Amino acid sequence: MYRRVNNSRYVVVGISGIVVVMSVFTYLMWGIANRIDTMTGTIVRLGTDIHTMTEVQKIMVQDISAMSTNIGIMQTSVQNMDTQLLAMSRNVAIMTGSTANMNNSMARMSHDVGRTSNMFSSPMSYFWNMGQ
Fold it and tell me: Among 10, 13, 73, 126, whose CB has the most other CB atoms within 10 angstroms?
């Protein structure tokens, strides 16, 4: 029996089997290593993208802060405009009253001009109608 096992055919078949099994194992390990390399590259790119995204977010924070400040300034400006419009509304009301007074004064003035022209055209009639 010892001679059969040490026969060169059995040794060749045994070693060939071991080589085939080791080749399959090596191929499988190479495939796993290749997948791990692909995954590592993907993770590195993901890390770079996350870093870029973080930098963009830092800039966005500054922009949002500036926008918030500008909105506060705009709110103050709108409040000032509201105050100015209120003052203008009051001034327009005063101007309307002044225009009405001026209109009344014009009516009195035209009455006085009429009386004056009447006085110059007939002085005696003026003295007779002095109370009007």
Answer: 126
Residue 16 belongs to domain spanning: 2-128
Q: How far is CA 111 from its chain centroid?
A: 65
Does the predicted model carry a pTM greater than 0.85? Answer: no
Classify residue 7 as left (phi > 0), alpha (psi -120 to 50) or beta. beta
130 φ/ψ angles, rounded to the nearest 5 degrees: -65, -30
Burial of residue 81 (number of CB atoms within 10 Å: 0-12, 13-18, 19+): exposed
113-125 pLDDT per residue, tens:
887 887 777 767 6
If one counts the domains in the chain, the total is: 1
